[in-house]
Predict the structure of Glycosyltransferase.
Amino acid sequence: MPLLLFVFYAFLVVVGIQVLFHLGFFAKFAFSKQKQESKKDLAISVIICAKNEAENLKTFLPSVCAQNHPNFEIVLINDSSTDDTLEVMEAFSEQQPNIKIVNVKNIEAFWGNKKYALTLGIKAATKEFLLFTDADCKPLSENWISEMTAHFTTSKTIILGYGAYSKIKNSLLNKLIRFETLVTATNYFSFALTGIPYMGVGRNLAYKKEEFFKANGFINHIQVRSGDDDLFVNQVATRINTASVFSKDSFTESVPKKTFQAWYKQKRRHVSTATHYKRTHKILLAALYITNFLFWSLAIILFITQFQWEFVLGAFLFRIAIQYLIIGLASKKLNETDLILLLPFLECFLIITQLTIFINNIISKPKHWK
C-alpha cells in the first residue's frame, strides 16, 4: 500500500475516533442541563490550604467569609509559609468566629507535600461535609457553598465543580490558560456524566469526610507531590457517588499565571499525576490526546501533498464542525465563549505544549506543590 494511501486511511480512522469522542462523551456535557436541587442547610467545612499566600488571602478570603449559608466553618491551613500568611489568617479569625486555623510545620518525611498539610486540616474540620478551594480563588456568587452542597445526597458524596480563571484583555497566554481549563472541565464533566468520573479540581471540589477516611486519605499516592484533588477523585469516584455541578452560582475564579514559564511549571505538576490514574482512564485520555495530535499532523501532511484533498477537506471540516458545536455549547455553559473564534489555533498550541510537558516530565519530575 502506498504510504500516502496509508496516511489517508489513518486520517479517516482518526477523524472517526475524534467524532466518537465528541458525540459519545463530550456531548453528554454540552447538551446536558443542570439538575436543580433544593438548597440544603448542611453543615460544611470550607478548607483552604495556603503556602505563602498572604496577599491573596487578603484579597479573596472576604468573599468566602461573606457566603450566604447558615452553617459553615472555614478551615485555614498554613502550610509552613515564610511570609505573613499565618498573621493574615489570625487577623481574619479575630473578626470571624467560624474560622479555624491549622498551622503546619515542615517535617522531613513530608517536606513540601501539600497532602500532609491537607490531611491535618481535614482531621481538624468539625463538619461531615468538606468543600475545597484555593487561597487565590473567589466564589463568583454568595450562594457558592449552598449551590455546591445542594447536590449532596445519600448516594452522591463527591461533588465536582468548575474553577475558572479570570480574564485578562489582549493576553494570548490568558486565552490559552482558559482554553486548557475549558477543555479539561469539558472532559471531566463529560466523563463523569457518562459514568466514568476520573478527576476533579481542588479549586472547587466537595466530598463527604467519610470518603476521605474510607480511602485512608491520600496514603495510596502520598509519594506523588501533586494530586490531592485529581488522584483522590480518580481513586474514590464512581458512577453512583459522583455529581457534577456547573450552574453559574457554583463557579469559583482564580488568578491565572502571568508568564508562560510559570504556567508551564504549574501544568508540569498537574500532568505528572495522570500516570497514576486507573488504567481505563489512562487509555481513554491517551487515545484522546493521540488522536488529537494525529488529526492535525496527518491533515497537514495530506493537505501539503494534496492527496485525495477533496475527501480530506470534507473529513477535516466535518470534525471541526462537530468540535465547534460541542465545545461551543460547553463554553456557553462555563462562560468562556470568547475563546471559540481561536479554537483551532489554541488547540494546536495546547497539543504542542502538552507534548513538550510529557517529554520534560519523563526526563525530570516536578517535586513540590510550590
